[in-house]
Amino acid sequence: MSLRENLLADANVCTPGTVLTVPEGDDATDAALLKVVADPTRLRILRILAANGAVCACDLEEPLGLSQPTVSHHLRQLHEAGLVTREKRGTWAFHAIDRDAVDAVATSLAALAR
Hints:
The chain is of the alpha+beta class and 114 residues long. Helices cover 50% and strands 12% of the residues. The chain has a 3-stranded antiparallel sheet. The mean pLDDT is 87.
């Protein structure tokens, strides 16, 4: 076989005009959520919140090894994506995982495996 030979040219592999199933879904929203979760620090925060319930932002600095502004940045990203809720208690902000939102992301991913 020569390097220039196209193995697919006459192998009858692809039939032009094949009708594909195009599943419904909000690709832009799913991609944005996955991008937020794909960050290792934000994924770590989600794991901490899932294991501990509502957590004060100040308590995340030490386990993450990050400064308060950096922790706040990541929490804001998670909150804006709808994955985390925020509750003010006096001057403190407590964050908790939004299990319904995380479940929706998991459902979306699980649909790919079916």
